[in-house]
Amino acid sequence: MTEMTAPKSPISSKDFADEVREQLKYTQGVTPEQATAADVYVAASTAVRRHLMDSWMKTQQDMVNGNTKAVGYLSAEFLMGRQLRNALLNAGLTEQFNEAVKELGFDPQDVVDAEYEPGLGNGGLGRLAACFIDSLASLGVPAFGYGIQYKYGIFRQEFDEEGRQVEHPDYWLANEDPWGHVDYGRDQKVSFGGKVVEEDGKRVWQPDWSVRAIPVDYMVPGYESGRVNTLRLWQARSYDEFDLLAFNKSEYMEAVEPQVKAENISKILYPEDSTQVGKELRLEQQYFFTCASIHDAIRVFYPGEDKPDLTTFPDKITFQLNDTHPVIGIPELMRVLIDEYGYDWDTAWTITNKTFNYTCHTLLPEALEVWPADLIGKLLPRHLEIIEKINDQFMAELKTLTKDEAKIERMRIVTGGDKPAVRMAYLATYAGSHVNGVAELHSQLLKDVTLRDFSDLYDSKFTNVTNGVTPRRFVKLANPGLSDLITEGLGTDKWLEDLDLLEGLVPLAQDDEFVKKFAEVKHQNKVSFSNFAKKEYGYDVDPNTMFNTMIKRLHEYKRQSLKILEVIAQYADIKSGKVKIEDVTPRTIIFGAKSAPGYYMAKLTIQLINNVARVINNDPDIKGKLNIIFPVNYNIRVAQNLIPATELDEQISQAGKEASGTSNMKFALNGALTVGTLDGANVEIRARVGADNFFLFGMTVDEVEAMYANGYNPAKYYESDPRLKAAIDMVAGGTFSNGDRNTYAPLVSDWLTKDWFMTLADFTAYHDIQSQIETLYADQLEWNRKALLNTANSGYFSSDRSIEDYLERVWMTGPLK
């Protein structure tokens, strides 16, 4: 932990109100009487940013002048969430803001709600990056987050009348963005295409076209650290002038073609890549931000030097590759060192190897990026040459380490054959200093399965850093009632800086009165979410029902289908009279998820969930015992309202498929019990909160692999479990599609003939665990005692601890003095 602690801001509420008035006048051009909540939001945000400016500048100065190695976190996603409340908390200005805004005649929540949430991430990967840069600043570690400022977010989700997901552009920059500072004077040139020629014995890249990368800087204030780091997101712009001659000939598209081509690079997160053009755009995006970031880091750490000594570059900054998206940065740094600064291959390789580290976020082979070599050669011909030379070096090195020719062939970075391809995960594993998984189980499976050949020969590279979440946003801001109760119970608020202090709550779990206080906080959070759901979506949610939540990116391996089939089976039991309605524990089942636009089966699952909800919620026989809601366009704002209210969290992915998960950590911290498999970080959560405080079901990794090996027949499970059969038959028979038997036929066919993630095999075990859940829920004191123990024992899952592990195991650096 950094020793530098920032005092609480001495400014008064009245002074802060005057600052907001000043910003309203000079930035918004309105009086307080003329201002809207959006005006006050911009003015207040600008005022807060000014309070952070001195610390931001000092942090940058100390980073460049000091001896502490910085961290460059390269990520295609940064799912930051709204900034105002977080910045107020870390700047010590929350109370001043609340009072000042009231003085100006506004409701603080209305002002906060005027901020549009940037959708610059798809889920866990981007939110993890956001938690990490928050923790880096809070620990006082100098860092840059490097990514892209997409003009449009992932997409704005809506549901049509049939319950299908419909994607709309998420133009989050439609209104003013007071947090991002565009710095045109620190732009970088990024080039593409062309050819490589020989000149004076050197390989020289002659690109066809270039774009201008313009940095947009966002302050990342640390909590109580006095440090403010930088999130630097890049915009793509054209160098080519507007073609006035073409425009005057009415050739309008030709006149703006260069601008459109350039700006497409930072237009949208994860463009559809099922076409060649889409693949090119994705690779352009990845190279665009990594190239700009590497050049920016050289500029930052060697200011004004024409010929810097870049052998010291790994002592200045270490780059963390957040998944495979930034891996093209490895050949880029090699190219810069060799072609632009004249280093020989071996020196450049040593620098590069010491500079990069790689986090692998998946166990699914299809998620490990592989780029066709001809595509890389088309867009980045010099980089393909360098990658091929790295591969040749690697192959030669392998022959000194093993005689196993089959293993050597399996480990190729550039595959053989008529259509060679580049395995980006293999390139990162070989070229970087460290490779880490993101949970103990995931890291072990990386070594044993996904990257087994590499771990056999390069075991010292591999380590684990279990993911974490920031308690500032996901407890203090999201759950103020629980935050206050924790502080009361511990007698200090220092747990926000050291989450291990939550263990002090363990004895209080035996104090019935404290447990009842904890239960009351949860109930009030449920009431608050019910009000939020009514206001935002028109849902009528009974806060006296169990809140049972599954928020996940919609993917088959996460098994939303398992949850909805169990709901259907319970519905069928009630309708058939097998289960008496008075014996059913009332539940509100809440889904939150987006599907990738081109993922047909995932989108069909969303449609099914919405239509199961439509049927069950409108069935008078159910009498409110089952209620299903699916808030549209799930995001950080919804999460901050929903997670504190949740009592039962679903983490039911097939064992061995989820890398870690972070929603499981957020739920446990906020006092929810988990029903889950031994997958990802569930293993560590269960070990820490206690097996008696976690609802475990389903096959283990070894059992899953054995079933794959022996042959899996899902139809056998369909025939052997009457409840499962009844549920699938209802889907197939048109119960949830107005009698149309074809609507969900692809889902039914997949369940019965393929079911790759073994939803049907785990269905009976998942049903059986429900009786334990309902029995415990009937004893509210005991349920909340166990929920409190989840909170008390989840301190390990702070992103501060994750960063401390990275500092010790991977980055070999620490906080600024």
TrEMBL record:
Classification via Pfam families: Phosphorylase (PF00343)
Superkingdom, taxonomy of origin: Bacteria
Keyword tags: Carbohydrate metabolism, Glycosyltransferase, Pyridoxal phosphate, Transferase
Biological processes annotated in GO: glycogen catabolic process
CC cofactor: pyridoxal 5'-phosphate
GO molecular function term, any single one: glycogen phosphorylase activity
N6-(pyridoxal phosphate)lysine modification, residue list: 666
A GO cellular-component term linked to this record: cytoplasm
Family: Belongs to the glycogen phosphorylase family.
Physiological role: Allosteric enzyme that catalyzes the rate-limiting step in glycogen catabolism, the phosphorolytic cleavage of glycogen to produce glucose-1-phosphate, and plays a central role in maintaining cellular and organismal glucose homeostasis.
Classification via PANTHER family: GLYCOGEN PHOSPHORYLASE (PTHR11468), GLYCOGEN PHOSPHORYLASE, LIVER FORM (PTHR11468:SF3)
Name assigned to this protein: Alpha-1,4 glucan phosphorylase
Gene this chain is encoded by: glgP
